[in-house]
Automatic annotation (TrEMBL):
<keyword id="KW-0378">Hydrolase</keyword>
<protein>
    <recommendedName>
        <fullName>Protein phosphatase</fullName>
        <ecNumber>3.1.3.16</ecNumber>
    </recommendedName>
</protein>
<keyword id="KW-0479">Metal-binding</keyword>
<keyword id="KW-0464">Manganese</keyword>
<dbReference type="GO" id="GO:0004722">
    <property type="term" value="F:protein serine/threonine phosphatase activity"/>
</dbReference>
<keyword id="KW-0904">Protein phosphatase</keyword>
<feature type="domain" description="PPM-type phosphatase">
    <location>
        <begin position="52"/>
        <end position="265"/>
    </location>
</feature>
<keyword id="KW-0460">Magnesium</keyword>
<dbReference type="InterPro" id="IPR039123">
    <property type="entry name" value="PPTC7"/>
</dbReference>
<dbReference type="InterPro" id="IPR001932">
    <property type="entry name" value="PPM-type_phosphatase-like_dom"/>
</dbReference>
<comment type="similarity">
    <text>Belongs to the PP2C family.</text>
</comment>
<dbReference type="InterPro" id="IPR036457">
    <property type="entry name" value="PPM-type-like_dom_sf"/>
</dbReference>
<dbReference type="GO" id="GO:0046872">
    <property type="term" value="F:metal ion binding"/>
</dbReference>
<dbReference type="GO" id="GO:0009507">
    <property type="term" value="C:chloroplast"/>
</dbReference>
Length: 304
């Protein structure tokens, strides 16, 4: 079961942090600072701080949104985000259940011997253990103590690494066609861990990791993310600022977002009323269902 966190808190080395969003919460942000991880005898010890923020769609405030994420300091650290697919609501199924169940299973399985600190295998086992009906895009990142970050993503949740004021690495969204991302699902026709895009990146002291659901990257340009990160030392404030910027862009009918530009480049036009409501068309389990775009999660990891 997901555990709600207060606005600011920390975790001990043995604890894990699983976040969903409590009822009647309009905006949620928190910060978690993990103990230092020794990378090698010849390298400085590094500490990891994670700031998070979510702004649910106005019609989803009652249940706190349809996304979930998980943070743990197991080994070097584990981060995961699951973005629920709103189309399931058409079948009277709560889209928030599947991502929360999936993240709960990620939490329960990170120390499994078969996982062996491989995020793709963690997705395999967590997906198999998820009994809720629904689907979600997902990204999992696992940091080893030698400084290697292993990443597995399915769909359009994303991860970027910012180094010295530039984006050093970025995951690429997976989609069947425009607005139809890959997703893990309770439905047999969905994707599996074998469809995950797997990456490895060596992190350096001072790197910043930005993770988010598509609500962030569809509404905020890369240069805006880099610029916003440079303004803050506090991770929770940085996460809140990015989430607020994405939310504001999503409701600005005069703003050409990364999503609207891509849609236009692919020959699609987005009516102003949909842009004003922060929506996009998406073909998923239920083709051509309108999905709200304002839900977003931002996770930032500062390595100090």
């Amino acid at each position: 079961m997901a555990i709600s966190m207060p606005k600011s808190s920390s975790i001990s080395p043995s604890n894990q942090f699983l976040q969903s969003f409590s009822r009647n919460t309009k905006k949620k942000n928190s910060v978690v600072c993990c103990n230092q991880s020794e990378l090698s005898p010849t390298r400085l010890e590094l500490s990891i701080c994670v700031g998070t923020h979510l702004i649910p769609h106005p019609r989803k405030i009652e249940k706190g949104g349809e996304d979930a994420f998980f943070v743990s300091n197991y080994n070097g650290g584990v981060l995961a985000i699951a973005d629920g697919v709103s189309g399931w609501a058409r079948k009277n199924i709560d889209p928030a259940l599947f991502p929360r169940d999936l993240m709960t299973n990620v939490s329960n399985l990170i120390e499994d011997e078969e996982v062996n600190y491989e995020p793709q295998i963690l997705l395999k086992k967590a997906h198999a253990a998820t009994s809720s009906v629904g689907s979600a895009t997902v990204v999992v990142a696992m940091l080893e103590k030698n400084g290697i970050l292993k990443i597995a993503n399915v769909g359009d949740c994303g991860l970027q690494i910012i180094r010295q004021g530039k984006i050093n690495f970025s995951t690429s969204p997976q989609e069947h066609y425009f607005d139809c991302p890959y997703q893990l699902s309770s439905h047999e026709a969905g994707q599996t861990y074998l469809d995950a895009m797997v990456s490895e990146v060596e992190l350096l002291e001072g790197d910043t990791i930005v993770m988010g659901s598509d609500g962030l990257f569809d509404n905020v340009f890369d240069h805006e993310i880099v610029s916003m990160i440079s303004r803050f030392n506090d991770v929770a404030e940085a996460a809140k600022a990015l989430a607020t910027l994405a939310n504001n862009h999503s409701k600005d009918t005069n703003f050409d977002s990364p999503y609207t530009i891509e849609a236009r480049n692919r020959g699609n036009d987005i009516p102003l009323w949909k842009k004003a409501l922060g929506m996009k068309l998406i073909g998923m389990v239920i083709p051509n269902f309108v999905v709200e775009k304002i839900d977003l999660i931002v996770c930032l990891v500062y390595r100090i």
